[in-house]
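Inputs:
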Amino acid sequence: MMRDAPLPIIALLRNPGSAEKLSLSDWDLLVRQARRAGLLARLDVLLKNQGVAIPCQAANHFMSAQIYATQFAVSLHWEIRLIKQALNSVAVKPVFLKGCSYAIAKNRAALGRVFSDVDILVDREALAATEQALSAAGWMPAAELDDYDQKYYREWMHEIPPLQNYRRGTAVDVHHNILPLTSRHCPASKKLLEHSVEINGEWLLSDIDRVIHSAAHLFHEGEFDAGLRDLSDLDLLLKEFSIQPHFWRNLIQRANELKQTVPLYYALRYTRLILHTPVPDEVFAVEEARSCGKLKLKLMDALFLRGLMPDHESCNDRWTGLARWVLFVRSHWLKMPFYLLVVHLSRKAYKRVIGKDQH
Amino acid sequence: MPIRSSVAFVDDQAILSIDPFVVKLQSAIPAVQSSVSHLYQAHDFFDPKAEIFVDFHIRIDPVGGLRRFLRPQVQFKFDGKTPFKPLPYSQAFPFFEWGLNWCIANHHFRHLLLHAAVVEQNGQAIILPGQPGAGKSTLCAALVGRGWRLLSDEMAMIDLISTELIPIVRPVSLKNESIPIIKEFVPDVVMGESFHDTAKGTVSHMKPPVTSVQNATQRTKGAWVVFPQFRQETRLSVETISKAAAVLDLAKNAFNFNVLGASGFEALCDVVENCDCFRLEYSQLEEAVGYFANLAK
C-alpha cells in the first residue's frame, strides 16, 4: 500500500508548492525518480509556474530535460507535417493520437512530454493506402517480421507493424482502433472517428475521447515504465477539461458507449488516490457503485499503487516486482481470449528457447 | 560546502567532486577503488553521509550467475539501469570512465558538448577535436606534460551564452602506442594501471596535474581549433581551414548538437569566430608541442 509519507515526486505532482520544504538530498531523490518516470521536464514547468526556487545543482537537470523536451516538440511538429503531407496524396486524413494530439491541441498534458512514436488512427478501409503512402515517403517496416508476426498484427491487433523512417529513424504506429481487435472491450472505431475534431489544422479525437483513450491505454498496459507520466497526463487532461459544461456526465456516458467504463473508473480512482485529482465525489460514487467487487478492488489497488510508481529502487517495496509481473500477465489476458493467449505465449516461449525471439 | 573526506571510499562508496559535477560511485571491486583513489587523488571526495546533491549515481558491480566462474564480468549501472552490455572484470575502471562520459553526454544539455580535448595557457585554449586515431589524447597529454592546463581530454564543454570553455578535469585516457610514447615524452608523468584487450586495445590513464584540478572552476576562452592528424614519418605541416568548414567539422564531433538546435549552432559559430582554425599533421610530439608553445607566446 502507499506509504504514509508520499514519495517526493508524488508530493510535488499533487502540490508543486510543497517543494519549498525539500532538503538537498530530497532534491537528489526527486530528480532520480522524475528522470526514471520521464517527468523531469514536466515538473520543471509545474515548479516554475508555482515560482518554486530550485537549488542550482538540481536546476541543471531540470533545465537539461527542458531543453531536450523543447527540441523534441520542434521535431515532433515537423514530423507531423511530413506525415500529413505523405497522406495527402491518397486523401487519407490521419487522426493523431496520444502525446501527439496533446501537442497539437496544446493541452497541458503536452507539458514536457517526450515519447518515441507518433501514433495515428485511420479508418480500417484506408489502412492499405496509408501504409503504401507512408512507405513511398520513406517509412518502412521497422523490423522484418515472419508470417506469424504479420498475422499477429494484421488480424488481432489494432495497429499494423511499426513503421520507421529510413533517414530520420522516426517511428509511426498506424492504428485502426485504440485496443486490440481480440480484446473484449474493443470499441467500434467508427464511433471514435465520427467524433474526431479538427484542431489547429489537424484531426484529433474529441477532448473526451482523448481522456478515454488515455485511460484505456494506461489500464490495458503491461509495462509501466511511463505509468506515472501517463497518470499525470490523465490528471492534467481531467483538470483542463472539467471546466467544460457537463464534462463529467458526458465523460461517463461516452465511456459507456465505447465500452471503456472499467478503465475510466480506474483512471478516476488512481488519479484521485495518487495525485489527488479533483474528481467530484458524486461522479466518483456513481462509478464506484458500478465497479468490481471490494476484494478485486483491493487487489487492483495493491497492483496499481505499486505499478504506477516510478521504476526506481527508492519507490519499490517487497511486493513491487510481483505486482509488475502480475500487471504484465493481466495486460495479455485483456488483449486476447484465453485460447489465443495460450497459442501466442507458447509460440513466444518456443521462439525464446530456440533463440529467435527478438521481443 | 559539504565535508571533505580524507579517504576516497567509505563502505565501498565514494562521492567525487568532478567539477562541475558530483558523482557517487559505489563499487566493492578493489581495482576500481584503487584506480579511482590513485587517479582522482587531487580531486575532492565528500563524506558519503553528507547532505549533498549528486548528479550521477553510478555503480560498478560484478555480474553474478554461473558465468562468473568461467569468465567474470562487470556491469555499469546508472542509478539502477544498465545502459551497456557487461565487460570483462579486468576492465572495471575504464568502464567507469566510459560510462561517466555517457552519463554526461546523454543528460547534460545546458552546455554544448564537443568530442574534443581542451588545454590552456595564458588564458588561451586549444580545442582539439577528435576523430578516433587522430591523436588528440596523445597531443593533449603531451601538452599537459609540458605545462599546459588540462580542461578535458574528452569533451569541450561550452557555455551557450558566454561561449567560455568549462573545465571537466579527469584522467586522460591513452591508448596502445601512445602509452609508452607519453611515458617517454613526459618522464614525471603519473600513469594508472594498463588495461589490455579492451574494445580500444590497451588503455591507460594519465593522472591530471594537481594545478589543473585546483583550477577546475576557472573557465577560459578558445583561441585555436586544431584538427590533429598523426602520420608516421611526416614533417609537421599546418593548413589553415575556413571558419565555415571548422564549424561543420566541429558539429560532426558534437555530442548534443541535435538537442540544442539553434542555440548550439550559434554558440559554436561564436567560438569558431574567435579562433584560428587549422589542420595539423605531425609525427614528432616534440615538434608539435614546440609549434604550440610558439603560438601561445
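Residues 242 and 248 of chain A are 7 Å apart (CA to CA). Flag for discussion at group meeting.
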